[in-house]
Automatic annotation (TrEMBL):
Highest taxon in the source lineage: Eukaryota
Pfam families tied to this protein: Ank, Ank_2, Ank_3
SMART domains per UniProt: ANK
Originating species: Colletotrichum zoysiae
Protein name, entry field: Ankyrin
Gene3D superfamilies: Ankyrin repeat-containing domain (1.25.40.20)
Keywords: ANK repeat, Repeat
ANK repeats: from-to residues: 204-236, 237-272, 288-320, 661-683
């Protein structure tokens, strides 16, 4: 079984609706607990289940316990990401780790040496002295990056050295010293070596100086610069030595940054993402393309960020990234990345370094929010549901406060959200450009409250935008945001039509009772008065969507008159009419019928034909299921409710000149070819099959008439089955049902039929003789 891994597909995972995420979680849980699967496969599923739970909105205590238990299982079976995160997550949620602290430290040591920044930070927090001691003896240096890459490069160095030539030996020693930080090996190389030798590249375009910087080896860097190595060299992906400033020890960073800039490294040089450096999901480098400052921000290194800003690094320099899921590109800048990770300290550091012109530039860019694909303000709001487990690890359970703090910092820097709100409608995607909408999309309730009350409510949305935000909260399964928007509805102008529309949309959008019941709070307030049309519309939507509990509660509180007509038709008429387009309409109609203790108002005059009222049975009977005009069980449901004799044989009371005058429900069923309705009716003991219409026709007469019509049309060459069903065959099946039930009225039919004017009297007589002969063969004549 191939597992979908949310940890590797966060950009896809966050787009999933809540029901899909629930199904995915159930599948992962089942796979993780199935003893027939391999241990490795179960460990992978266990970790991914934990990711699903901790990326969810407010996981339950049971889900948290289950997820932490499975993360521990995954960690005990060698899953590195589980090993780096289970201890921190246990602390965040107030649980005791199921293994000893010494066991966790062993996991963290292995992961730290593999380059996991999460493990390194956790190791430092638990035992800084132990971390320094444990990491000091590895050949790649503290804060190691790309250990797998380094190992492969070292193997290549050894192989090249075995070639025996002087050049190969020298070049291999250069790269080996840069990888390992072995200054002694570098000193063995003659100092008078031409400077262009120091430009030798490995397979990825890295010179020894860049490799030394990637490992944070200050001593090797100093020697290489002294010997004339080119510090401004770039790799095939545009990476410079300055992009790895965060790899050095904090004490060395300011000096190293100055030296590299003095030797010609471009401070805002752009590079590609550099995925070769991202060996783990939380690797220090290779997360994003851009400037050295962006790489320092992505690495979360305050010293590197401060050093680069001090030298004039541009916090707004952007690298356009091609989106995998959208047609446009999006931009990443140092300040937007700090906001995205909710790194409040980093963001404040950047903001505090603004020059006046930079600050003005930043504000102007944010004012053009409707033209931006990736904006600082919205990045700060975002609590990306595909990355929420990362937020828990970085910020604990108060991760929403970190995002809100970032938003406040941007406002303090001069961003004017009020101006953005005034012009948000200029955007092609204006619905998403409003700050309130951004907070709703992020599921960040803390930021939503902050923005709602900002400057006494100046950011509060219009009723239309509020409705969009409410629907989005439902789609995202964001219950806290939903409740907030419902409870604060009175803070914005009243608009009953908007409220009614959003109730109907939500009833059509979700099956979750939390939302479908909760949204009724909008119209349960004493000051809200709904018109009968609006009340019926909401009730009708609730029934059609199968929300019986909601519909019953609304029916009781708003005194819905089920017999009320709209456009001359009742609700029952409407439900029968649309039954072909919705599933399980028979149960929905049955629900409506059982609400009323008195049947008559629901039975009589539910619709009109030729100006006269139709009963529920008559209208349902004329909706043939063969044409897919109604669900086959709808008529049975209505007949079951109205099965008394006083309802079964009621005749249509149209004017005597109407061709329908005097028709019973059975007449309508025969005339329309509703075979299932005829079958239901003839099984009723009290049904009368010989009732005549005002024109003297019994249901059997109609069958004979229809048979003659089709036979005539076919002979003339006009007959065709345009609607996809064989009307003639259906009529004969109905004829058989009626013959079994009743054989009266046939002689009268023939005498009446022969007196009618037809296009060919002789043909008509022949048809009647043929029908009589057919009946005689069946032994009934």
């Amino acid at each position: 079984m191939t597992l979908f891994k949310p940890s590797r597909n966060s950009n896809v995972f966050w787009t999933f609706p809540e029901p899909v995420i629930e199904i995915l979680g159930q599948q992962l849980l089942q796979h993780a607990t199935d003893l027939e699967n391999t241990i490795i496969s179960r460990a992978n599923a266990a970790y991914e289940y934990g990711v699903v739970v901790f990326n969810a909105n407010n996981p339950s205590e049971t889900e948290i316990d289950t997820a932490l238990g499975l993360l521990t299982f995954a960690a005990q079976n060698g899953h590195m990401e589980a090993q780096t995160s289970v201890g921190r997550l246990s602390d965040v949620f107030g649980r005791t780790l199921a293994v000893s602290r010494d066991e966790e430290l062993k996991w963290l040591l292995v992961a730290s040496r593999a380059g996991s920044t999460t493990a390194q930070q956790r190791f430092r927090d638990l035992d800084i002295d132990g971390f320094m001691a444990a990491m000091s003896d590895i050949p790649y240096g503290i804060g190691t990056t790309c250990p797998l890459l380094n190992q492969s490069l070292l193997i290549n160095c050894y192989q090249v050295r075995q070639a025996g030539s002087y050049t190969d030996v020298v070049l291999s020693k250069l790269h080996e010293s840069a990888i390992t930080g072995n200054v002694g090996l570098l000193v063995e190389i003659p100092a008078e070596l031409p400077s262009d030798w120091y430009e030798c590249e490995n397979a990825f375009g890295e010179t020894p100086l860049i490799v030394a910087c990637r490992g944070g080896h200050t001593s090797v860097l100093d020697v290489l610069l002294t010997r004339g190595a080119n510090a401004a060299h770039t790799t095939t992906q545009g990476v410079t030595a300055l992009h790895f400033l965060a790899a050095f020890n904090d004490n060395d960073i300011p000096r190293v940054g100055s030296i590299l800039l003095q030797h010609g490294v471009e401070i805002d040089g752009m590079c590609e993402r550099g995925t070769i450096y991202k060996e783990l999901p939380d690797s220090t480098f290779g997360q994003v393309g851009g400037t050295p400052l962006l790489w320092a921000v992505a690495a979360g290194n305050h010293c590197a960020v401060q050093a680069l800003l001090a030298h004039g690094a541009d916090p707004f320099a952007e690298e356009r990234q091609l989106s995998m899921f959208f047609e446009h590109t999006f931009e990443e800048s140092p300040i937007s990345w700090a906001a995205r990770l909710h790194q409040t300290d980093l963001l404040k550091t950047i903001i505090n370094k603004f020059a006046s012109d930079s600050c003005r530039r930043f504000i102007d860019e944010c004012h053009r929010i409707h033209n931006r694909g990736s904006l600082r303000l919205f990045r700060a709001m975002d609590c990306h549901p595909g990355l929420r487990i990362r937020d828990y690890i970085l910020h604990g359970r108060q991760y929403e406060c970190a995002a809100s703090s970032c938003v406040g910092s941007l406002f303090d820097a001069g961003v004017d959200p009020i101006l953005l709100t005034r012009h948000f409608w200029l955007s092609k995607h204006s619905q998403l450009a409003h700050p309130i909408m951004g907070a709703c999309l992020s599921k960040n309730i803390v930021t939503l409250r902050y923005l709602w009350d900002y400057q006494n409510g100046t950011l509060r949305p219009t009723p239309r935008l509020w409705a969009i935000a409410l629907r989005r909260a439902v789609f995202e399964g964001h219950k806290a945001g939903f409740d907030f928007l419902i409870d604060r509805r009175d803070d914005i102008p009243a608009d009953v039509s908007c409220d009614v529309a959003v109730i109907k949309r939500i009833l059509s959008q979700t099956k979750d009772l939390y939302f479908t019941i909760g949204v009724l709070r909008l119209v349960q307030k004493f000051r809200v008065v709904l018109s009968p049309t609006d009340s019926h519309s909401i009730f009708q939507t609730a029934v059609i969507q199968g929300h019986f509990e909601v519909a019953k509660q609304f029916w009781e509180t708003h005194n819905i008159n089920l017999a009320r007509r709209t456009g001359g038709n009742t609700l029952l008429h409407h439900f029968i009419s649309i039954s072909r387009g919705y599933s399980d309409m028979e149960s929905k109609i049955s629900f409506v019928l059982t609400l009323c203790n008195h049947k008559d108002p629901l039975f009589w005059n539910i619709g009109y034909l030729d100006g006269s009222g139709l009963t529920a049975l008559q209208f349902a009977a004329q909706m043939p299921t063969q044409k897919r005009l109604a669900s086959p069980r709808v008529f049975y449901t209505i007949l079951k409710y109205f099965s008394e004799p006083k309802y079964l044989n009621v005749r249509f009371g149209g004017h005597s000149s109407s061709e329908w005058a005097g028709y019973t429900a059975l007449h309508f069923a025969v005339r329309s070819g509703n075979l299932s309705a005829v079958e239901c009716l003839v099984q009723q003991p009290e049904i009368k099959t010989s009732v005549q219409s005002h024109r003297g026709e019994t249901p059997m007469d109609l069958c004979v008439d229809i048979a003659q019509y089709h036979a005539t049309d076919k002979r003339r060459g006009f007959w065709a089955s345009k609607d996809g069903w064989n009307r003639s065959a259906v009529n004969m099946a109905i004829f058989d049902l009626l013959l079994i039930k009743e054989s009266e009225g046939l002689i009268k039919k023939y005498s009446t039929l022969l007196l009618r004017k037809a296009w060919d009297e002789y043909t008509l007589v022949d048809d009647v003789k043929g029908i009589r002969y057919g009946i005689k063969l069946q032994g009934i004549w």
